[in-house]
Design a protein that fits this description.
Elements lengths: L4 E4 L5 H10 L4 E5 H4 L2 E2 L2 E2 L1 H12 L4 E5 L12 H18 L3 E5 L7 H18 L3 E5 L7 H10 L4 E6 H11 L3 H8 L3 E5 L10 H4 L1 H4 L4 H4 L8
Parallel strand pairs: 1-2, 2-5, 5-6, 6-7, 7-8, 8-9
Antiparallel strand pairs: 3-4
Amino acid sequence: MAFLGLSIRGGERREEELRFARKVGYTAVEISLDGTGLVFGGRLHASMLREALAAFHKHEFRYSVHGPSSLDLRDRANREIQLALARAALQFCREVGGRVLVIHFEQQSQDPEDEAAFDEAVLRLSDEAGDVLLGIENIEVERVEPVIDCVRRINRPNVVMTLDIGHAHLSAAYFRFDFLEAIRSALPHVRHVHVNDNFGRYDPLRLENFTLYRTQTQADIFPLGKGDL
């Protein structure tokens, strides 16, 4: 059975966001862990967590959780804090009743040790996740194929693919692969889908200088149709 959901930040305006999602007819909600502001130093803030959970549990949504943008499972120099952050995301997902924890695949490294670190971290999380699905998401900085390969390689029933249609569209334009063929190849591994809109005009600054890329405003990118909308 498919559930149609809306992405929310889940912070101070969570009640307003949840009421809106219900009003327009959504039965599912994806909570951005970044937006909740619940994680400090790789740990969930206990009293803030209780308050947030009380709010989420008042609503009968099917929840999923989007892992933090700062999570980097290839970061071997800061291994323990990265794993702690991943576990905090998993804990929140479990406690809110989430069915899927979304984890960005990010850009594939040319260093085999970095890729091994990513796989090992996902395997560790898989051991702890139980019936929570770990949805490895393609994003625009990488082709879709390496994400498919990763899910195949890990080969765990609770490690699946989160297919982001908008990210794949941007990636196909930049890396010059067949968008629809990539979608077809991914489908056997997909259990969770993100749908967002864009013009397929990749902003090269995303890979060239991410710090500068993040300083751009909507006025910088929307008129030109660049990036995610």
